[in-house]
Structures are given as C-alpha cells and as structure tokens.
Design a protein that fits this description.
Layout: H1 8-25, E1 33-37, E2 43-47, H2 50-54, H3 59-72, E3 81-85, H4 93-109, E4 115-119, E5 122-124, E6 131-133
Helix pairs in contact: 3-4
Length: 150
C-alpha cells in the first residue's frame, strides 16, 4: 500500500506511468491493462480482455494473473510495482478486486507489491486513497529515477 508522504522517487515513477499511459491512449480504444515492473524500465503487461472482466469476481484467477506477471520478470526487479491502466477517471469496483489480488499475491510471493490504478489524469492506490491528479500531463524527455528499495 502507498501512504503519505509518498517517496519522491516513487511518485516520479508513477507520474511516468501516467505519461506513458496518456501517450498510449492517443487515438486508440485501449483495453484495461495490468502491468508489473517499473514504469519506464523493465516491465510486462497483460491486457484485461472483456472475457476476464466478466470473471473479475474470481479472486484466485486474478491472483494467478498477478503472480504470473511478477514471476515473468524473473526476480530481477526488486522495486516491482503493479499498476492497472484504464480509461475513465472514476473509481471502479474492479480496482478494489485487483488491489485485493495484488495484496494476496504479495503475501504468497513474500515481497512488497505496491498497486495503483493509472488513468490519463493521474494515479491512485484504491486501498489507501493516496494518489496524484494533474490537469495536463506533459511528456517527459528523461526516464524516471528508480524507486528506492522498500
């Protein structure tokens, strides 16, 4: 879970995730996507198709998806973050289901896994409510710093 005050490096990495998502949305109808890794660095992604959205109430299935993503990184990224990118700005029930799945996966993998939902205007931890919003997200020329180890 992400709490206040948010570490500056982590906040910048999450802002980079918002920038990336905003650039990817231009002119496309993007599916919600679950990511694991570090925004702007090594990461893997999984498109949350309509078929999976219909089964979002299956907690074990969501945990399996999260664990598979994190394991596919091969344990090489100690500062792994999990984030869900999607259209829309309002909270959705699915956000809490994914947050619960990430918490369970973190327990099973015995490692911290912060989770946020990223939209075109900001990011938010659905469990704590901590997040940031911007009226306009500008593209960045340089990559974000690596988040500090937890």
């Amino acid at each position: 879970m992400i709490t206040e005050p948010t570490d500056g490096a982590l906040a910048e990495v999450l802002r980079h995730a918002v920038r990336q998502h905003t650039m990817n949305l231009r002119g496309r109808a993007a599916e919600p996507t679950l990511h694991a890794g570090v925004p702007g660095g090594r990461q893997v992604a999984f498109a949350v198709t309509a078929a999976l959205r219909r089964t979002e109430s299956d907690h074990a299935l969501l945990v399996d998806v999260v664990e598979a993503l994190v394991r596919s990184l091969g344990g090489h990224e100690p500062n792994t973050i999990v984030w869900l990118t999607r259209r829309g700005q309002d909270e959705e029930v699915g956000d809490l289901r994914w947050a619960a799945a990430v918490r369970t996966a973190a327990t099973e993998l015995e490692r911290p896994l912060p989770f946020v939902v990223v939209t075109r205007v900001g990011w938010r931890d659905p469990l704590t409510g901590v997040g940031r919003r911007w009226a306009r997200v500008r593209a960045s020329v340089r990559p974000p710093p690596s988040p500090t180890p937890r």
